[in-house]
């Protein structure tokens, strides 16, 4: 019998309807009562690190989650974290960098409808998550949702209401679960022991380009943060007319040691800045990094992890381009 630790954080799966809308209220032990059949294959202990709508998720809670899993690691065979869907992809990315090469599965799940509603995806998602966390083939960090197992570094919320809330970006599903049967397509590489990195640097920001966007705003953001991700268009570039001022702002702050990563707002296939002149100059004359096939969620969390370990831009660059949990393969 597998021993699984269920860690509650809140979200719709733990929510009840109040006069002001849905609010997380249920403890993990209450949620567990809805899926008695899992006792056939696992024994579950429960705890909560918080009980929040995941809109309130923070890097401090990621540290707490990492420490909780680290402190309980030896006592359990796997972990199920219940979480709101809104920032679940960020937490899946964060845990992929903060807990690396885990031989034991760390599964994150949640739902689009509360567990006590007549029509809800909660019970299936939870049951599937415990099934996956109890599998000998599972390892590392992943989201289990709507019958799909998505690598933590590749998940993105792509539907705000329907049960198929998550997609796997630029990477296949690693497994599917159909009628309680697990079909494992890809096994994650794991080490004998995981590495835990509970300390991260949260001073990472995101600047989304829109026609008319002002370099002044980017300048302000770079004055406040240690790293900025620019979510650009297409395969990547920056408005290049000198009067726009973007090139000068980027040059000024990279010279001062700030990290700038270019990524794309296009959901699939990633960046390739060298294709167009608007990106090429930036890539080759200024030391701007590039996200390639990584998700924006992973870029945010990878920078927090890398900046938590190093401050020298060359060392951050080396960590950034290192493939971790299959996050960058381009
Ligand atoms: N489906 C959900 O869980 C959404 C909720 N607002 C949350 O992220 O906590």
TrEMBL record:
Domain Asparaginase/glutaminase C-terminal: 203-320
One Pfam entry name: Asparaginase_C
Database matches in PROSITE patterns: ASN_GLN_ASE_1, ASN_GLN_ASE_2, ASN_GLN_ASE_3
Active site: 12, 85
Segments forming domain L-asparaginase N-terminal: 3-182
GO biological process: amino acid metabolic process
Residues holding substrate: 54, 85-86
EC number: 3.5.1.1
Similarity section: Belongs to the asparaginase 1 family.
Protein name, as recorded: asparaginase
């Amino acid at each position: 019998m597998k021993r699984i630790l269920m860690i509650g954080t809140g979200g719709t799966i733990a929510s009840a309807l109040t006069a002001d809308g849905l609010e997380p209220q249920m403890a993990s032990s209450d949620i567990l009562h809805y899926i008695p059949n899992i006792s056939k294959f696992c024994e579950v202990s429960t705890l909560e690190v918080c009980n929040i709508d995941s809109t309130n998720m923070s890097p401090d809670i990621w540290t707490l989650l990492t420490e909780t899993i680290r402190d309980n690691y030896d006592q359990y065979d796997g972990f199920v974290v219940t979480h709101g869907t809104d920032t679940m992809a960020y937490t899946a990315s964060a845990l992929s960098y903060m807990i690396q090469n885990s031989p034991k599965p760390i599964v994150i799940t949640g739902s689009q409808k509360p567990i006590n509603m007549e029509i809800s995806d909660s019970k299936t998602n939870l049951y599937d998550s415990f099934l996956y966390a109890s599998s000998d083939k599972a390892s590392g960090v992943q989201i289990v949702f709507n019958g799909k197992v998505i690598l933590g570094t590749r998940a993105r919320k792509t539907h705000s209401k329907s049960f198929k809330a998550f997609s796997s970006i630029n990477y296949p599903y690693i497994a599917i679960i159909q009628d309680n049967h697990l079909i494992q397509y890809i096994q994650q590489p794991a080490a004998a022991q995981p590495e835990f990195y509970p300390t991260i640097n949260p001073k990472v920001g995101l600047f989304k380009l829109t026609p008319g966007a002002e370099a002044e705003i980017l300048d302000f953001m770079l004055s406040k943060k240690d790293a900025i991700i620019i979510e650009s268009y297409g395969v990547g570039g920056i408005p290049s007319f000198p009067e726009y001022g973007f090139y000068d702002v980027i040059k000024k702050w990279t010279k001062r040691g700030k990290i700038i990563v270019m990524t794309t707002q296009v959901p699939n296939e990633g960046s390739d800045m060298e294709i167009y002149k608007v990106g090429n100059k930036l890539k080759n004359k200024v030391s701007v990094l590039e996200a390639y096939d990584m998700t924006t969620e992973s870029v945010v969390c990878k920078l927090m992890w890398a900046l938590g370990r190093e401050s020298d831009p060359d060392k951050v660059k080396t960590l950034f381009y290192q493939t971790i949990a299959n996050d960058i393969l381009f």
